[in-house]
Amino acid sequence: MPTLRVITLGCSKNTVDTEHLLSQVQDRYTVVENDAPADVLLINTCGFIGDAKEESIQTILEAVEAKAAKKIYVFGCLSQRYPKEMPGLIPEVDGWFGAREQDALVRALGCEPQPAPGRVLTSPGRPYAFLKISEGCDRRCSYCAIPLIRGAHRSVPIETLVAEAEDLARQGIRELVVIAQDTTWYGLDLYKKRALADLLTALSKVEGIRWIRLHYSYPSSFPEDVLDVMATDPKVCRYMDIPLQHIADPVLEAMHRGIDGAATRALIRRMRERVPGVVLRTTMMVGHPGEGRKEFKELLDFVREARFERLGAFAYSEEEGTFGAEHLRDSVDKRTKARRLDRLMALQQQISLEANRARIGEETLVLADDFVDGYYVCRSEFESPEVDGEIIVPLRRQTFGDVDPYSLVGTFFKVRIDGASEYDMTAEFIDYEED
């Protein structure tokens, strides 16, 4: 069979798209590892922000210059966002397919699109997988190009997602990370109600899946029945990824977030009250139009007050086609944005360090993601893969014996945390956890 290689750039949602695609062409192609020669090279691109676009274009140019394959097809967000510009910019590419044109790419590869494709995991042996529950977004945040790229929100039916989760469990997956452009909108198109809580309950019944983690939850009109499921279902991690972006009312209004600072603070309080011990991860943006010194100070004060266990941040940049680029003046200079970003992250590093140090002595359950240089790389329910810190557990022969250490990847351990930094923690093995 001809050989095929895929390069996936961007977010975890792109990873899922690649894995769905591979499941539809695996009977016709032999999929080879990165850097291996291939007859066909697929490049799944990101086009969300400037840095991501530059990385995608550079990757395509390098593949073309290296003559990395007989045919090169590019798909994903960059192709979707610039369908007319890209073919003229890099004419050596054999085909361009947008993020909403995966069926056309499957046909170009000589295969027939499947209505409910399976998954070919691109990181075999990893005990977690992302589960994309919807595509597109109906929100209209002023800074965001995702609706322009991915289109309107479209939920995947619950029964389809349960079947996909069952297939992932058969492949050895122990943790599902539920993702979408906006997970809280799930179900409105199919079931005429927000059905995220129903979906989590259905997924928790899948045999073999031990943890279910929720990402990308929008704060406006948050479906609070999700909190009840999180508080009572042992499979649903007490972990919430909820990008807030800001707290100052003028900035939230300019962002078109549909929520003000008071409602945001109240929602965070309810989350901590209704799900005791919940860990909150959020994302903040600095330098958005409307953010002056007063608004930035309010953001810092809020972060000190809320004490998010996990927080990421980035500086505002204009994205063509968005409301912000067309109607708002980019009023904060780059130097000020960089300085504010540094101040915010320095504050969060201290908060994270204090939160991690407070866990020293705690006994907790961890999942071993990998084994590297004599150490197990693990996480508890309070750390999400690829974005949060890790819990490092040394291999001790007096406790593990002569077992092949790699055979324990994907196993749950009980450990005692004995050290902490701003991001990672260390721990000592106590015992295996029985399923």
Task: Please explain how this structure is put together.
With 435 residues, the protein is α/β, with parallel strands linked by helices. The chain has helices spanning 12-25, 50-65, 77-81, 85-89, 102-108, 146-150, 158-170, 188-191, 196-203, 225-232, 249-255, 261-274, 293-306, 323-327, 334-357, 397-400; strands at residues 3-8, 30-31, 38-45, 69-76, 95-98, 128-132, 134-135, 154-155, 175-179, 211-214, 236-241, 279-286, 310-315, 363-372, 375-379, 391-394, 412-420, 425-432. The strands form four sheets. Strands 6-9-10-11-12-13 form a six-stranded parallel β-sheet. It has a five-stranded parallel β-sheet with strand order 2-1-3-4-5, sandwiched between helices. The mean pLDDT is 94.
Characteristics:
435 residues; alpha/beta; six-stranded parallel β-sheet; five-stranded parallel β-sheet; 18 strands; 35% helix; globular
